């Protein structure tokens, strides 16, 4: 069964990014549909897949990571507005029977992502 998962790692501190709110959107024909929300646990992961089974279909998606709130809690000082606050990641799903793992590697002034397994 296909599923969508994520994992947030704080690369500046070398630890999981816990307590980060993530919104999930499905994109289609100029429309952005909110399909879910999750919060990372102490391991920087979500307790259940973001989407799976019939809810996970081919198409374009966006994960929105509320990183600024996490960075504030971690005591990272920055001018307002913050350099990084809300981080949107858009990606395509061609085969929804597969596992799409979309991690976020986060630091106060940069981030990266990739498709993992």
Automatic annotation (TrEMBL):
Alphabetical UniProt keywords: Hydrolase, Purine metabolism
Matching NCBIfam families: hdxy_isourate
Gene name, Swiss-Prot/TrEMBL: uraH
InterPro entries registered for this protein in UniProt: Hydroxyisourate_hydrolase, Thyroxine_BS, Transthyretin/HIU_hydrolase, Transthyretin/HIU_hydrolase_d, Transthyretin/HIU_hydrolase_sf, Transthyretin_CS
UniProt organism field: Halomonas colorata
GO molecular function ontology, one term from the record: hydroxyisourate hydrolase activity
Catalytic activity: 5-hydroxyisourate + H2O = 5-hydroxy-2-oxo-4-ureido-2,5-dihydro-1H-imidazole-5-carboxylate + H(+)
Domain Transthyretin/hydroxyisourate hydrolase: 4-116
EC number(s) per entry: 3.5.2.17
Pfam family, one: Transthyretin
Protein name (record): 5-hydroxyisourate hydrolase
């Amino acid at each position: 069964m296909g599923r969508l998962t994520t994992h947030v790692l704080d690369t500046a501190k070398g630890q999981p990014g816990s307590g980060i709110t993530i919104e999930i959107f499905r994109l289609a024909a100029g429309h952005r549909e909110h399909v879910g929300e999750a919060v990372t646990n102490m391991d920087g992961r979500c307790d259940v897949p973001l989407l799976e089974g019939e809810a996970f279909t081919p198409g374009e998606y966006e994960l929105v990571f509320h990183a600024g709130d996490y960075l504030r809690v971690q005591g990272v000082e920055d001018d307002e507005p913050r350099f990084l606050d809300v981080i949107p990641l858009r990606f395509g799903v061609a085969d929804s029977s597969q596992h799409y793992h979309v991690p976020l590697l986060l630091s106060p002034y940069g981030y990266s992502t990739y498709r993992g397994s």
